[in-house]
Design goal:
2 helices, 117 residues, mainly alpha
Length: 117
């Protein structure tokens, strides 16, 4: 589960997110100190503790999402390698049975029938 996690980019993204969060907290405390508690000396340690906790939480989440993204890309590559060519026609130019992907369905109408009221 924790194998092959790429922590470097995860720590960088987490640091960016925490910096944005701290910037927003500071901006809100300056812009609206009455409604968004102004930062005092007593609140700074709790803010730093929250920032550290968010940093590790974000790093953990980003490491797992990056691992999952890499796995999906590898699965798609292996699926594409196993597929035959994309052309549904054989050598004579006729459409092979069972490979009608991309063909227009003749049983549907392109115009909607209007209801009479």
């Amino acid at each position: 589960m924790f194998k092959d996690l790429n922590w470097g980019p995860a720590f960088k993204r987490a640091a960016i997110f925490v910096a944005i969060w701290l910037g927003l907290v500071y901006a809100m405390s300056v812009a609206a100190p009455d409604s968004f508690l102004a930062m005092t000396r007593a609140q700074i340690p709790s803010l730093i503790i929250n920032a550290i906790m968010f940093f590790f939480l974000f790093a953990f989440i980003f490491a797992f999402t990056e691992k999952r993204r890499i796995q999906r890309v590898e699965q798609l590559k292996t699926q594409k390698k196993g597929k035959p060519d994309k052309s549904p026609a054989d050598a004579n130019g006729e459409v092979m049975e069972g490979s009608l992907r991309g063909q227009r369905n003749p049983n549907t109408s392109r115009k909607k029938a209007r209801r009479k009221r």
